[in-house]
Structures are given as structure tokens and as C-alpha cells.
Amino acid sequence: MGTINEFINDFGYSNEWFVEYVNEVNNQMRVMGILDIKEYLSGAHAISKRPNEVFNGKEFVPRRIILNYAVRLLAFGTAYLIGNKVTLTGNEKVVDAIKSVYKNGYDKLDFDLVHSVNRYGNAYEYVYVKDGKITSKLIDVADSFPVVSSDNEYIAFVESYTVSNVTFYNVYYPDRVERYSNGGGTLQSRGTFSNLSGLPVLYRNDNPIDDVYGRSDLEDYQTILDSMEDLLSKSVDAFHRFIIGTPIIKGQMLTNNEGLSTRIVGQGLTLDSDSDFYYAQNKFDHAAFETLYKHLMTSLLDISSCPGIVMGKVDISNLSEVSIKLLFSLSNLKAMIGEKYIKEGMKQRNKKIRRLLELQGIVFEDAEWDTLDIVFQYAQPQSESDVIDNLKVLKDMGAISVESILGHSPYTTDVNTELLRLDEEGNKNTAVVDDGNKV
Predict the structure, then answer these.
(1) Is 115 strand, coil or helix?
(2) Which of 104, 256, 282, 406 has its CA 20 to 30 A from that of 325?
(3) Cβ partners under 8 Å of residue 351, min gap 6
């Protein structure tokens, strides 16, 4: 296995290797790409840079219509995969231990990390112990620099961020974390701390040209959205020009003004006897616009694996369960691919949790731990009555437990609490029956 010292020697870094590594061109270009995505999602689209137009010495401000469909599509992909909490299965003792850890905010963290993977292609999670509790934090992807050796081995991690012109570095090694800052113009150590859980967990999605960094889903949507915004903005300008037309005046005007305003409807002119005035109008082909826009929207939904009904683009009625599955087949396919990569990262997280649990005296055998699995439940619409009927049939067959029924029930939010309530109700009923027998 490669070490950080071999990495430093192989690539000729100095003792301040992490500063040089962060400032390398490829890393800075990657960070700039992430910042571009953040700006795009906040509304800085290509259409907003459309220049003003100048005619006859006057400046005209064109329409700049922004469609933030990307935000909705990315949110849909995240909610569809992880909107329903993941279910842990396996040895009861192991599952109970992991569940007790997951209560420390992991439901929100899972949503955020999947959202980060969809937006930027990557997410980074550091597992640690705080106030005796095992928890995690997500490291901003723009501040994250995983170190991979020439043998494609993950050997270190650098977190770098700047506050008030001072850059801070948190350098993660398998056994320690070193902190630095360049306040005052020189690099200074801010301490070294034990690292009980090892390196941060790397999450990524599918990228055919890179094994370390994933690929943002936004890259698939952006060019289509840019075309839709360009088409819509220019078409709105053209439509207003079609309604008003271009005013043309021949001859001498008697009014003391500089022409017709483009913002006022219904104003008048006084012309000389040999003058003429008329509007020149273009032809607005609404059918061509509708066809182009509809094709772009359809392509956007197809590529994003988002059914048209989710975005309100299709009218539906009386859909069967099979029809719903067919409508969401592409969404399921995309979610399955994403699940593969997210589950891989979660398994690495659970291994780190196991290590921290052992330090707290909670030890599991390998045979017990290997039964642990993570099950995703996609947020596909379904008939609640059909689910309950199916669960009832399985229970009558003796093929499912009460705990599993509660776990799949659309009306149960806390399985453990519900089991305790059922147990209490069962004890009360038994006590009533026993009292009746005594009488």
C-alpha cells in the first residue's frame, strides 16, 4: 500500500506538500467548475449575460428569462433515491447498534450527501466522536482535495478553505489530523490531533473517464436549458415586436419629440402634410416555437429520467400500479445506478462506525457484522390500499413478521415505538382476560 511519503517523493513535493497540491492547476480547475455549478444553481445562467442591443444610438434591454428547472430536477433525483429513509437489515444486535448511531442526525446527512453527489458528482463525509457520540460532518466539495497515489490508492485528504484572506488547511492522514493556517503571511501549525476513524469517506457517481471524481448531473441538463432560455427570451422579444411592430415615419414630424417610446402603448404623433407613418410587423410563427420548445422540454425530461407527470407536463387519470411502474421505469433505472455508488460509500462509513464502537467496548463478530445491509426504498408513488392488502396477504401466509409489516406500512413512522405500543396493548389484553378467568 502506498504511503504519503512515497507520494511526496514520487511527485517532488516539499514539506508543505498540501499547499502545493491544493494549488495545482487541475485541482483549481475542478474547484472553479464546482463554483460555476453553485452560481448556475443560484441563477447565474448564460442568458443573463445576453448583451443589451443598440439601435439608432439608443440602448434597448432585451428579455433575459431564467428557467431554474435544474434545481427541481436535481431535487427530484435526490428525493426519489433517498427521500424515504434507508432501512438497515441483518443481525438484530448489529442493526440496533447502527440505528442508535444513525439517530444522531444521519437522516438529514444522507439526504445532503446524495444531493451533493447529484449536484457536483462527489460528497465527502468525516466520521468522528463528539461528546461521546458518533456523528459525521459533510465537507464542502469546493474545499475538498482527496489524495490518490499513482497506484490509484486513497492515502490522504486535504480540506482547504479561506476566511478573510486567511487560508486554513486540515490535512487528514489515516492516524492523525494536522491543522495549519497562513495567517500573517507564513504557514503555521494549529495542532495535531488523533484520527480514530481514518480518512473521510468518498462518495461519487458514475463517471466513465475518472475513477476518483464523479460527474455532475447538471452537465446533462445545462445545454438544453440554455437553449430553452435563449429560445424563450428571444421569442418573447419577437412576440412583443409582433404586437407593437416597428414604427416607421416618412417625412417631417411636427411634434417636438425624438420618436416613439418602446415602452408606451397608444401614444400619438403630429405629422406634416407630406409625411407618412406606419408599423412594419414581422410574422410570429407560434407553431414553430411551440414545437421547438416542446421537443427541448421532452429531451430534458428524458435525459433527467423525470416523468412528465412530475413536472405537470402530462395529464393522467386512473393509472394502475403497472402503469405507474412503467412511467417511473427510467427513474428507477437512474436510482439503481446511483444507489450502487452511494451504498458503497455508506458501507465504508459503517466500517468506520464499527471501529469507533469497538473503542467504546461494543464489539461484533465478523459473522454478525457481515449480515448488515442497506436497503433503499425509492419514492415511487403507490397505492396505499394495495400495499396494505399485499402486507395482509403475506401475514396470512405467515411469510412476513409484524416488524417488517410496520416497516413497509405507509402509516408507520417509527417502527420501534409502534412495536412497544403493540406489546403494551397485548399485555393489557392478556391482563383483562386473566382477570375475567379469575371471576
Answers:
(1) helix
(2) 406
(3) none
Q: Residue 58: which region, alpha, beta or left (left: phi > 0; alpha: psi -120 to 50)?
A: beta
**CA-to-CA distance for 30 and 213, rounded, in angstroms?**
9
Residues 252-283 pLDDT 10s: 655 555 555 555 555 666 666 677 776 666 67
Dist CA 241 CA 233 (whole Å): 13
Q: What are phi and psi of 166, to 5 degrees?
A: -110, 125
Written as one letter, the residue type at 373 is D
pLDDT by residue (tens digit) across 326-365? 788 889 999 999 999 999 999 999 999 999 999 999 999 9
Distance CA(218)–CA(216), nearest Å, equals 5
Helix, coil or strand: residue 113:
helix
Specify whether the CB–CB gap between 223 and 299 falls below 8 A. Answer: no
pLDDT in tens, 351-362: 999 999 999 999
pTM above 0.70, yes or no: yes
The DSSP 8-state label assigned to residue 269 in this structure reads -
296 with 223: CB under 8 angstroms? no
Residue 416 pLDDT class (50, 70, 90 cuts) = confident
What ranges in 66-137 are assigned the alpha helix state H? Answer: 69-82, 92-102, 106-120
Nearest in space to 206 (alpha carbons), one of 338, 76, 111? 338
Beta bridge partners of 201: 125
Q: Which residues contact 347 (CB under 8 A, 6 or more apart)?
A: 374
Query: Which has the closest alpha carbon to 103: 83, 121, 88?
Result: 88
Cell numbers 458514475: residue? 206
pLDDT at residue 55, rounded to an integer: 64
- Burial class of residue 273 (count of CB atoms within 10 Å of its CB; 0-12, 13-18, 19+): exposed
